[in-house]
């Protein structure tokens, strides 16, 4: 090395050296650092005088090994790096540990130069020796632990490095048999299914532990002892550097005991759950457990919710005796704890409703795991209480019915002997009680009434019951009528059969029936003689009654429409108004009038009727339908229609007059504007019509005008319109025209039609006409403008020689 290099190496905390091999084979140091001399306990002058001191300081026990290792490294054809670790024995008898490393290199002259370092490792060796001693102590401690312990390397195959005596006891394998075994998990789990599941879990748990430098949590594993017996162990493991330390606790017996306990508990739970009665476990403060019957009884979804429920939530605030439920419950609990058991009646309530549940509760005290608890059995007595309540209610109802019943009640035997009676009023009795009790019917009632009653008793005694026997008795307040209902008590057809007879006073009913008969007779006489149709409808709009004069007015039998709706006779166009009329009456419950509508006659034509109607109510005020009167107004409607027609049509030709024509023209213009169409207006004036009037008279002239009107209508479409506005002037409206040429074509047809001779008797009269045409929107956008422009065009046709067609001029 260069001197500068050696100078730099002098500053290092390790000793450095360089040596060469002399021709005689002995090593010769060419340089040593000061630190090297300090480690060897030598000074430079001593060492330069005798380099053999470098070998002399090596501990006698380690010297030969170092020389042999050095020679072996140097004797190679290709010298190899040299490493040695050993002790030095210094002049003051101190021993130190050093580590020497040397690397060969060839010099330019071919010599092999060895460059090396020496480090004092005494402190590290002391720690290593202490660790070895600690490991040995740890092995002794692990060997005698009561828990099975296994140490394995953290390599893919995880070979076993150590196992203790407890491991041999649990698994059956000695230290010698288990040491060095790879994949030890497969050894202790020989069954393929268990082995696969355990190995999968182990690899995942180990990988997670390695990643977090932590522990493998406790896991219960099924294993097999060397002798083939199955066992269970709880395994946990800790990672220490590259070692795995696993511990195993044999839980085979405890698991067997747990399994037996689980089976016993399952049998108890099955018995606990199978009982139909509610059973629960509790202490003095809260619920601990309950079976399904308990949950059903109280309307609670699960045990957790039940156990979190307070006693007060399952009982009303007070029991029927008036004592607060919590106070009384505590008294019963203390009694059961003191005396061993307690039985009492209790009213519970469901958690999901206000329904109260009458129950019988039995509390039994028991010791469980050193704790004083109570077992409660709750029997639902709802049905028993309900039956008792129903019996009480039935008796109360019977008593109330007997008190409130307006009928007379008698208990009689088959011979007619009266044993018992009941009456809400003594005024109902024909005789005072002392005059008929213990006597027979024939001795008490008039002969005719007695015969009727005895016949009814005999029928009831024979057949079991009788209904409908009616008889009358002379009472102080007038004649009274009674109806019998008799039922046999016990089996009929026995001589001793007794009967219960109810005697209902129907005097008022008989009088009402007579009054109703007279009223109906009067009403029927009025209805049958009326000129209008009288009818009734139910709430669905169906006929319930129609007066007989329906035959004379509309030709139908009233029975044809009974049960049918108004749609069966009302014109379809008027049906909605009639239904609205009916709904208005039903909603307001007030009289409605003035509805005009059409109804079908039997011969097929339609008649106009006007109706007034009033609501009908049941005796309790409930709306039941309506009563209506319908009057025929067909003649009036025909007159109104005729008058309306005269107001809008020409009396001579029956064509629309000016008013109606211009109304239709306005409608056509609105339609054209909305749909972007053309409308044509023609102004037609007959040529030389005045001479016809003058020469032949107005009667002939009128006939000519009628003929012209018919010819104009025959030429036009149904959607077009022709009107007479006076004298011999006519207007024609053509809707939805496409071109002026099409309009002129229609005008040509009119001219041709009017040129045909008009034959009246022996007369043959010839006509012609002048026509002016105005188009919308070309010549105007309103009816007045179009009429004026068509009139102007007509006069132009007149001036041009008559019998002409002229289109209005376009104004620019």
TrEMBL record:
Its cofactor is Mg(2+). InterPro entries: Biofilm_reg_signaling (IPR052155), GGDEF_dom (IPR000160), Nucleotide_cyclase (IPR029787), PAC (IPR001610), PAS (IPR000014), PAS-assoc_C (IPR000700), PAS-like_dom_sf (IPR035965), PAS_4 (IPR013656). Pfam families: GGDEF (PF00990), PAS_3 (PF08447), PAS_4 (PF08448), PAS_8 (PF13188), PAS_9 (PF13426). Residues 134-180, 394-464, 519-589 form the PAS domain. It comes from the Bacteria. Residues 677-810 form the GGDEF domain. Residues 82-133, 593-645 form the PAC domain. CDD domains: GGDEF, PAS. One of its GO terms (molecular function) is catalytic activity. PANTHER family: BIOFILM ARCHITECTURE MAINTENANCE PROTEIN MBAA (PTHR44757:SF2), DIGUANYLATE CYCLASE DGCP (PTHR44757). This is PAS domain S-box protein. It comes from Thiocapsa imhoffii.
